[in-house]
Specification:
alpha/beta; homodimer; Rossmann fold; 145 residues; 43% helix
Chain lengths: 145, 145
Amino acid sequence: MAYQHILIATDLSAECHRVLRPATQMQSALGCKLSLVHVIEPLGLRFGADVPLDPGILHDQQARQATARLDEVLDDWPTLLPQDCHLRHGQPRAEIHQLARDLGCDLILVGSHGRHGLALLLGSTASDLLSDAPCDVLAINLKKD
Amino acid sequence: MAYQHILIATDLSAECHRVLRPATQMQSALGCKLSLVHVIEPLGLRFGADVPLDPGILHDQQARQATARLDEVLDDWPTLLPQDCHLRHGQPRAEIHQLARDLGCDLILVGSHGRHGLALLLGSTASDLLSDAPCDVLAINLKKD
């Protein structure tokens, strides 16, 4: 269990602290490296349709919002370094797995809403991440409290 | 991350040691309680059809095989106590989640083959376990070596 490099995959929502807390605890207990990734999904991908707006403007706006939100999160978790936080554009599973491979991570930490049935088909990043994962995956249950 | 009670969900296959090793490491590092569950799926459930054999005989045979295999596994992992090992009959996700609730487990440890596509639809216990899990789930990647 001596994980060397943990990758936190997060949506940067208000609940992200419930994944960041155990991640930073593991960082200090195991002395491991900590990285974070947030994947910005193109709106066309999320809604499965073209959006009648300039995609370049939307792309920039999404990136600016994510950067601002990431800065807020980093203020609360000082052991997580800005240079170890990655914003990616694309399909979450593919981007997270690729980054985990590129960085040589041995554990992906992700929050799980424990969706089931139709909600699962509509997309659960945690469940999706298990398919073809390059390393272990720890799903933190966000429903239990 | 101070897990108190870990439930190992295993198929008792030859690969189960790759889940038992980190589980017993966590047990000694965290001083937590360790339980194990193996779910015997009724053949009718597994193949989606009736089997033209006495289900009672098959049930007993499956249970005997599982008990014998569990005894072999326990020989290799002495910190795992026989009274903390549970054999259940039924649908894996439902049985594992119910036992985790009954025992008050805060982490389920499971091996993951990282199946995707059609193989995932046909059944991946690890991925399936995330839906509606009563606690955190750590999926140990069995493909990475």
